[in-house]
Amino acid sequence: MTKHIGILTSGGDSPGLNAAIRGVGKAALDLKMHVVGFRDGFRGLMENRTTLLESGQLSGILTLGGTILGTSREKPHKMMVGGKVRDMTEVIVANYRSSHLDCLVCLGGGGTQKNALRLKQAGLNVVTLPKTIDNDVAMTDTTFGFDTALGIATEAIDRLHSTAHSHHRIIVVEIMGHRAGWLALGAGIAGGADVILIPEIPYDIKSVANAIHKRKRSGKPFSIVAVAEGAISVEEYQEIQAAPAAIKGKKAEAAEIVYADRTIRVAQQLESLTGLEARVTILGHLQRGGTPSAADRILATRLGTAAAQLIHDGHYGVMVAAHGENTVPVVLEDVAGLVKTVPVDHSWVESARRVGTNFGD
Amino acid sequence: MTKHIGILTSGGDSPGLNAAIRGVGKAALDLKMHVVGFRDGFRGLMENRTTLLESGQLSGILTLGGTILGTSREKPHKMMVGGKVRDMTEVIVANYRSSHLDCLVCLGGGGTQKNALRLKQAGLNVVTLPKTIDNDVAMTDTTFGFDTALGIATEAIDRLHSTAHSHHRIIVVEIMGHRAGWLALGAGIAGGADVILIPEIPYDIKSVANAIHKRKRSGKPFSIVAVAEGAISVEEYQEIQAAPAAIKGKKAEAAEIVYADRTIRVAQQLESLTGLEARVTILGHLQRGGTPSAADRILATRLGTAAAQLIHDGHYGVMVAAHGENTVPVVLEDVAGLVKTVPVDHSWVESARRVGTNFGD
Amino acid sequence: MTKHIGILTSGGDSPGLNAAIRGVGKAALDLKMHVVGFRDGFRGLMENRTTLLESGQLSGILTLGGTILGTSREKPHKMMVGGKVRDMTEVIVANYRSSHLDCLVCLGGGGTQKNALRLKQAGLNVVTLPKTIDNDVAMTDTTFGFDTALGIATEAIDRLHSTAHSHHRIIVVEIMGHRAGWLALGAGIAGGADVILIPEIPYDIKSVANAIHKRKRSGKPFSIVAVAEGAISVEEYQEIQAAPAAIKGKKAEAAEIVYADRTIRVAQQLESLTGLEARVTILGHLQRGGTPSAADRILATRLGTAAAQLIHDGHYGVMVAAHGENTVPVVLEDVAGLVKTVPVDHSWVESARRVGTNFGD
Amino acid sequence: MTKHIGILTSGGDSPGLNAAIRGVGKAALDLKMHVVGFRDGFRGLMENRTTLLESGQLSGILTLGGTILGTSREKPHKMMVGGKVRDMTEVIVANYRSSHLDCLVCLGGGGTQKNALRLKQAGLNVVTLPKTIDNDVAMTDTTFGFDTALGIATEAIDRLHSTAHSHHRIIVVEIMGHRAGWLALGAGIAGGADVILIPEIPYDIKSVANAIHKRKRSGKPFSIVAVAEGAISVEEYQEIQAAPAAIKGKKAEAAEIVYADRTIRVAQQLESLTGLEARVTILGHLQRGGTPSAADRILATRLGTAAAQLIHDGHYGVMVAAHGENTVPVVLEDVAGLVKTVPVDHSWVESARRVGTNFGD
Fold first, then answer.
1. What is the pLDDT of residues A59-81, one digit of tens each?
2. Is D126 helix (H, G, I), strand (E, B) or coil?
3. Which one of D14, D17, D159 makes the best mutation probe of the C interface by having the most chain C beta carbons within 10 Å?
4. Residue C37 and residue C117 in one domain
5. Which ranges of A77-181 would DSSP assign to H, the alpha helix?
6. What ipTM is given for this predicted complex?
C-alpha cells in the first residue's frame, strides 16, 4: 500500500534544508510513497496549505539556500490565531488525518524536536531531522547548516584580519549561538581568533584585556575577538545563578534584544582597558543564507534518505541522528528539551588553548 | 641618477592596496629606483618609521587584503602629538628631505588627495593613486577596492535572499557609502534588491513601503532593501538644506555614529507600515577586507606601474586616474576636495528603475 | 500598439546570460511589450519552439549560470536538418513573421553578431548584446561573462601557486581564448603568473625557459605559466604566415582539437629546458559556468535594459555596446566579422612587463 | 629537559598542511619544546636542510595553501642521489641523532605512514598526522585536505551544471582518487551528479548510458558524470583479477599516465551510446591548492596540538587519528600499507542510490 508523507520545515532557516527536502522526497518517491509539503512550518500544517512534491519540484534545489517550503517559528500548541495565542494541536491532528498521512517529517532545530514530540504524544507518526546552524541539538554528532555557517563565519574572520592588522585595531565579531558556543568556537579556531567568548565559559573582561595587551607588547597591536551571541561575563553568570527561576526566564526572553548591545559593550570595555581602537561586526543573518557547503549537502542527503527508509520500515517517533558515518534513529523523548552545549574540556577548547587562544577565564 | 621614492597608504584599508604597492614597487625597481615604505600613513612619515621595499618584500602580496605598510587616518596638518592636535607639515617636509626622496607616492581616497595636495603646496613631489571601496574619488573612472567590496556586498545580498524568502521578511542591509551611493547602488542592482536607498536620492519611507506592499500583493511577501550608510529621508534632506552651514557641519560629524541607528529606524518604519517582519544586517568592515578581486588586482597593478613611470619621467603633483583602458595623470588641484557622487540620472539608476527597483522617490 | 519581441541565446554559454534575459525582459514588460523566448538559439527559432517570458519566469534568474533558454552553436544559413546542412534563413524569417515579432534580440558572441547581421539583411529587425567570456567582440569595451571567467581563472591560478611553490614545479595552466588573449592576460596579471602566452604575441619557448631559469637562480624554483588556448610559437606563426589561405583555414579548423596537446607540449619543452618538473591544468568549461560576478550582472542588466529601450524607440539593426558608463548602439555592419584582439602595446601588457612578466618574446 | 622535535611534510601537497604545522609548532612551543622544520620532505631530512620554527614563522600561516616547508615524494630507502636510487635511511638516522631530536613529526598520506614506520623500525621516535585529499588513510575517520578538496570539486560540478544544462550535454568530470573513490563519491553526491564512477565499483558503460538515456527520455537531455581517476570498467577489473601479481604491479605503475585518457574514453563511449555531445573536464591540481576550509583548519589544528601533547608525554611510534570529536594515537604498524577504500554498501553509496545516482553497476 502506498504510504503518504508530509514534510515541513520549522524554525530559523538554515543551509541544507532544501537538500534535506530533496533527500527525503527523492528517496520516498523511490520507495513508492506519495509526498506533500506543508508551507511555512506548523502554521501551514494548521492551515492545511500544501504543495505536491514530485520529481520536478525536487530537481535543482540541492544547492539552494533557504527552504522552498517556507518556514515559521510557530508552535502547534501556541499559535497566533485571530489575534490570540491558541493551542491548535487538535486542528493539526485533524489535518494530518484528513490528508491520510502515514507520517509527518519535521525538519528543524531544538524547538522543532519538542514540537514534534508533542505531536507524537497526540498520536501522530513523526520523524524529524536535526537542522540548525548552532549545532546544539542533542544526541547527534552534528546538524546540517552548521558546516556552512562555520565556513561563512570563518571567511568573515579572514576578512576582518585585514582591517585589524592594517589599522592596529581590536575587531570584535559577534557570531550566532544563544545557548551553545559551537559556531563561535569553531570559527574562532578556524579563523585564528585571539580570543573566543562562548556561553559555556563565562569571561572576565580583564583576562581578555590582558591577553590583548600581551599581544600588543610582543609587537602585535591587533586582535580578533570572536563572541557568541550568548557569551556572558562572570558577573552576569553569578547574577543568573543567584536569581530565582522566574528572573532567569525573564532574562532569557530579554536576551535576544541585547546581544548586539552586549557585544558593543565588550568592545568599549576593551578599548578603555587596552588603549587600542575597537570595532564591532555583527554577522547576523549572513550566517544563515546561501548555498550549503558540500559537507552539509551530503549530511542532509544522508539524513533525508535515511528518514524515508525508516518510514518505509514503519519506524516512527524518532529523530534521524548522525553517528559517525552512520545514521541512527533516536526516540524523540531522548532529544526534546535538551541542548548540546560545549563541554568546557572539549577537545576543540583544549586545542584552541594550546595554540594560544584566550577564553576570558 | 637613481631616484628615491617613498610609499605610504592612508585612510581606511581597502582591497588592492598591496597589489598597488607591489605594482609601484616592482615597476620602480625595474626602473632602477630605490624604494622605501612609510608605516601607518602620514603618521609614519612624520615619525620617520620606514621599511625597505625590495623584491623579497614585494613578492607574494598581490593577493593579500589590508596593507603591509599599515595605515592611519591622520592628516599632516592635524596630527595628535603629545596629546595635542598639531600641524606637523614641517616635520614631514624635513623627513622627506633627509630621506633624499625624489617623490612620495600616497595611496588613498578623497582625504588622501587633499593631504597630498597640501604636501605638494609645501614643496614636495607627490604622486597619488585613488583607493577606496566607495568609488567616490573624482576624475577617475573607478578606484581599486570598489570591485571587491561590490562582490562582497552582492554575495551578502545573495545570502540574505534565502532568509527573506523563507521567512517572508523584509531584510534591510546597510552598505558602506557616507557621501556616495555607488556601492549600495551597484550591489543593489547585482543582488536584485527591490529597494535601493542612496544619499543622492532622498527617500520617502511611504514610497518604499508602497513598493513593498505592492510586491506582497503580487505574491512576493519578502523584499530586500539596500541602504547606503549616508542615505537620507526627504525630511532630513530638507532640514539640512534649511540649516545654516554650522549646523550642517555638526550634523555631518554626528552622522557616522548614527548610521546603524538610522538603518534600524528604516526597518522599524517599514515593519509598521507594511505589517511584515523586518530584520537588519550591517555589513560593516566585512566590505573592506580579504583578497582583492581579479579586476581590482589588475587595476591596482596598472595604476601602480603607471605611477612609477610618471616618476621616472619626472611628472609629479598628479593622481594616476583610470580612463577606460588607459591611465591618465590628473593634477591634484583638480581632484582634491571633490566627491564623485551618483548622478540621479546615471545609467545604473535608469537601468535599475527599468527592472523594477524602487529608490524611495 | 504593443510591441512583440523574441529573445534567444546563441553560442557557448556564458555567465550573465540569464541576467541579460532578465534585463531585456523586465524592461520590455515595463515598456508594455510582449516577450517570448526561443529555445536553444537559432535552432529553436527555426523550429519555432518558444516559451512565454512573463514576470514569473524572469524572477530569481539573476544569479543563475547558463541560460534558461538553452543555446546551440547552429547558424541560420548552415543548419543540420534531416542529416544535411541547409540554409534555413527563409524558415526563420517565416517564423519571425508568423509570430508577429517587431524585433528579435540575439545574445551571443562574435559568431552571433554575424548571424544577426544575416537576418538583418534578410529583412528582420534585430538587436544584439555582446556576450562571451573571451572579451573579443569588437566595438564594445567589454562583454558580459568576461569578468566572471576572469575571476574563476584567477582563483584557479591562486590555488595552483600552492602546488607550484610546495613542489618546486612549473605549473602550465591553459585558459580559454582561441583568437584573443584577454582572459589569459587578465588572469595572468591578476594571478601573478610569471609567464603569459597569448595568440597576439608568438612565443619563443627558449625565452620562456630563460625567464623560468632566472627565477630558479634567484631562489624561486617554481613558476606559473598562463597559456591562452590560441597561443602560438614563433615557428607556428611563421608557418601560418607563409601558408596560402586554404591551409590557414584548415589549420584553424584543426586548432580546437589540439589546444590541450599544445599546452602539454609547452610543459614538456619547459621540463626539458629547465630541469624542473612541470604539470598541466586545463581549466576548460569551468570558466563558463556558475553564478555571474557582480560586475557581469550589472553589465548584463544595463545592456539588457538598454536593448529594450532601443526597441521601444524603434532603433534596430544594432549591437548594444558598453562605452564607459554608457551604452551605445553600434550598427551590426561595424561589428560582424571583427575580432577584438589584444594590441601588443596594450596598457595591460605594458603593465605586466613592468612587474616582471615574461611574454615569451 | 627541553625536548627537540623536527617536522616535515611529505607527498602531494594538501590544504591544511600549514594549519597542521602551526598546530604542532604552537603547541610544542607552549609545552616548552624546541622546533625545527625540515625542507622538502624526507629529502631535506637526508640533506639536513632545516629552518627554525618559532612563534614568528608560525603566525599568519593558518589560511595558507601548500606547505611552508616544501614537500617531495621521495622515500628514505629509495632516494635519488648522484643519479642513482639509494637507501639513505642511515644518513637520515645520523641526521636525526646529530640534531638531538626527541621526535620526528611526519605529515603525509599513506606513503608517508609507511616511510615513518621504516624510520620507527630504524630506531627513531616518530609521530605522524594523516594528510591527503583522497581520504584513504586507514584507521582515521578522515584526513585533512579532504574537506577542502571536496568543496572545490563540488563547486566545479556546480559550475559544470550550467554548461550541461544550457547545451544539453554530458559533462564527464575527472576527480582525484587513484585507489579510493571518496572524493568523487562525496563531490558527486554534493554536486548532484547523475552518475558516479569509483574504483571500488567497476562500471559497465552500458549501464551508465542507459541511465543517461532514461534521463533524456524524461526531458532531461543533460547529465553530469563524476569519475574518480582510478575508476575501472568491469572488463578492466576482470583482467586485473585474472592477471598474476607481476602484471598487476605493472598496470598500477602505468595507471597514472592514463587517467585522463580513460576519462576521455568514457566520454567518447557515452557520446556514441547516447547520441548526446559529451565534454570532459579534468580538475587536476586545482583540487590540492588554496586556502583550507574551516573544517580542515580545525581538524589540522586538533591533530597537530594532539601530536605535540603525545610527544610531551613520550608517546611515540603512532599516527594521530581522528575518531569522532577525539584524537587517538594508532600504532604505525596498524596503519602502514593499508588503504581505506569505500565499502560498496557504505551509507554514502546507499544514500546516493536512493536519490537516483547511477554507479555503473
1. 999 999 999 999 999 999 999 99
2. strand
3. D159
4. yes
5. 89-98, 110-121, 146-167
6. 0.95
